[in-house]
Amino acid sequence: MGEIGKTFTGLTGKTKDDFGHGEAEFVTYMNIFSNSIASTTQTENVEVDERQNEVEYGDIFFTTSSETPEEVGMSSVWLGNKLNVYLNSFCFGYRPTDKLDPYYMAYMLRSPEVRRKFQFLAQGISRYNISKTKVMDMYVYTPKIEEQVNIGQFFINLDNLITLHQRKYIKLGGFYEI
Predict the structure, then answer these.
(1) Distance (Å, whole) CA 50 – CA 45
(2) What are phi and psi of 167, to 5 degrees?
(3) How far apart, in Å, are the Cα atoms of 141 and each of 30, 36, 105, 108?
(4) Beta-strand (E) ranges in 68-170?
(5) pLDDT at 171 over 90
(6) Run of H or E residues at 63
(7) Which among 17, 59, 76, 128 has the fewest CB atoms less than 10 Å away?
(8) Is pLDDT at 178 greater than 70 in this prediction?
(9) Structural domains in the chain plus CATH codes
(10) What is the pTM of this model?
(11) CA–CA dist 173, 138 (Å, integer)
(12) In whole numbers, what is the pLDDT of the chain averaged over residues?
């Protein structure tokens, strides 16, 4: 991963008084943990701070800590284009330096093969963490950009089809649990 991008930190030097108000936003831990593509509406307010790293379209976020090794290193791709949006302090960001399809990256980084790599990197006993350095040493398969786009589009279409059928099932009186 280190050959195709660079890491950056989330919010630093903040106190609880800086949160819950302000003209800036930050991407929450749960947004990243729960979504392979981060929701641009699941953010919270924080004071604007030029010293922080603003997130950009195509950035990838990773959770750094969890209670189980299976949940460490969950990833999420940012597709927003807003100014003054930062990353929470319990995650780290990754900015590709090579041209990568964000949808491909969103699905590939959540694939069972890559998730096993993250579980292997998890260190701890009661709380598990991953090292940015170890993540940057990890190898992930990135085909040519045209193939990435095709694979990413395939999974977007599949997700949309599943969502459509879930809504239809509920509308017909079925019960669906997440």
Answers:
(1) 15
(2) -65, -40
(3) 27, 17, 10, 8
(4) 75-77, 85-87, 91-96, 123-124, 128-129
(5) no
(6) strand 60-63
(7) 17
(8) no
(9) 5-141 (3.90.220.20)
(10) 0.90
(11) 46
(12) 94
